[in-house]
Design brief:
Number of domains: 1
Number of helices: 8
CATH topology: TIM Barrel
Oligomer: single chain
Largest sheet: 5 strands, parallel
Strand content: 5-15%
CATH architecture: Alpha-Beta Barrel
Length: 230
């Protein structure tokens, strides 16, 4: 598997990608194997100057939140692509019940897959449907936790992919296999919804920042640096 990762990284390098996502490893591996695989992948990416992120995906090394928490504890330099929809299936619940774990892995998250899962599947039929409003809002709460960690770390950019997919994910009618919704429209809706969500979160984050006392504000220059009293 590492040979495939190295070859894929070399193929990506000429395009100078912002980030490279890796769905790798196997849930049946030993803990030691689960540590050695991402470590070797990170070393290979570093030699090529690439930002490699490992996805939280079913059947892979990071297949559940607790194993992921263990791995980031032992590999503090690991970077993650957070796709919480997979964990909803593995744990059979929405991830807000695991917020302490979500907060502990948050500093490692560099990219987010904006697909909404639920307790019985990795993809709701449509994230705009009122019957899945709770699933959407619970995912958004976790995404805000990741944005907050990125902001605290001084990140100037965040990345997210609306990742509703066709193969086995998109719900279909029985017998005819007709899709229950238009996949392009779903991803467009998700992208627009998360642009608004991020904008609202940023605005709320700015408003929540503590205001300096008046006398302190009077002694700051245009760049926000303290100015000695005259």
């Amino acid at each position: 598997m590492l040979k495939v990762v190295r070859a894929s990284l070399q193929a990506c390098a000429p395009f100078n990608p912002v980030r490279v996502n890796c769905i790798g490893g196997l849930d049946a591996w030993t803990h030691g194997e689960m540590l050695r695989f991402p470590e070797a992948g990170m070393n290979a990416a570093e030699t090529l100057g690439l930002d490699l992120c490992f996805e939280t995906h079913r059947s892979r090394c990071l297949f559940n939140p607790w194993r992921c928490e263990q791995i980031v504890g032992e590999l503090p330099e690991i970077r993650l692509t957070a796709d919480l929809s997979h964990w909803c299936v593995v744990a059979e619940r929405l991830m807000v019940t695991e917020m302490p774990t979500i907060r502990r892995i948050a500093p490692h998250v560099r990219h987010i897959h904006a697909r909404v899962g639920y307790d019985q599947g990795p993809q709701v039929p449509h994230p705009a449907a009122p019957e899945y409003a709770q699933a959407l809002s619970r995912h958004q709460r976790c995404w805000e936790c990741f944005w907050d960690a990125q902001q605290r770390a001084g990140a100037t950019r965040t990345t997210m992919t609306p990742e509703f997919g066709p193969d086995g994910y998109l719900h279909q009618l029985p017998f005819t296999r007709a899709p229950v919704a238009d996949l392009w429209e779903i991803n467009r809706w998700m992208a627009d919804a998360e642009r608004r969500h991020l904008s609202q979160w940023r605005h709320a984050s700015i408003e929540a920042r503590p205001v300096r006392p008046r006398e302190t504000i009077d002694h700051l220059d245009a760049a926000g640096s303290p100015v000695p009293p005259a």
